[in-house]
C-alpha cells in the first residue's frame, strides 16, 4: 500500500473515535478464541515439572569434511552454501545477502 508522506498528518483534534469506542474495538479484537486440538499436544507437560532425574543421551557428530562453520552466524553448513571466504573465514549465502 502506497503512503503519501507529504500529506498533512491528522492531529488529535481530527480524531473522531472516543476512548470508549477504542476500548470497545480493542475488546472485540481480543475476544477471538483459538481452537486448540488436544491431539496437537503430544504429551509434553514441562511447566513446573521436576526433570532432575532425567538423563538425555545426545550424540554429537563432529564437523564433516564437506561442511564449514560460517563466521557470521556460526552455523555449521554444507559446502554448497558457501558464498565466499571473508576476512575472518567462510561466510554462508544467507549472511552474504
What does the model show?
The chain is an alpha+beta fold and 97 residues long. The protein has a domain of 43 residues. A two-stranded antiparallel sheet has the order 1-2. The relative contact order is 0.08. The mean pLDDT is 80.
Describe the structure using short key phrases:
4 strands; 16% helix; alpha+beta; two-stranded antiparallel ribbon; flat; two-stranded antiparallel sheet; 97 residues
* Estimated structural class: alpha+beta
**What is the terminal separation in angstroms?**
26 Å
Shape descriptor: flat
| Low-pLDDT stretches | none
| Helical amount | 10-25%
Number of strands: 4
The tally of helices reads 2
Order of helices and strands: HEEEEH
The largest sheet is:
2 strands, antiparallel
**Average pLDDT rating:** 80
C-alpha Rg, in Å?
Answer: 27 Å
Spatial strand arrangement across the major sheet: 1-2
Beta strand %: 5-15%
SSE diagram, text form:
Layout: H1 19-30, E1 67-69, E2 76-78, E3 82-85, E4 90-92, H2 93-96
Antiparallel strand pairs: 1-2, 3-4
Task: Give a brief description.
The protein has about 100 residues and is an alpha+beta fold.
Amino acid at each position: 500500500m502506497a503512503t503519501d508522506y507529504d500529506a498533512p498528518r491528522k492531529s488529535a483534534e481530527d480524531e473522531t473515535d472516543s476512548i470508549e469506542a477504542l476500548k470497545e474495538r480493542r475488546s472485540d479484537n481480543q475476544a477471538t478464541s483459538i481452537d486448540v486440538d488436544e491431539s496437537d499436544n503430544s504429551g509434553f507437560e514441562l511447566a513446573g515439572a521436576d526433570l532432575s532425574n532425567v538423563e538425555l543421551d545426545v550424540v554429537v557428530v563432529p564437523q564433516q569434511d564437506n561442511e564449514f562453520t560460517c563466521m557470521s552466524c556460526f552455523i555449521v553448513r554444507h559446502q554448497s552454501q558457501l558464498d565466499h571466504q571473508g576476512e575472518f573465514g567462510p561466510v554462508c549465502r544467507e549472511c552474504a545477502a
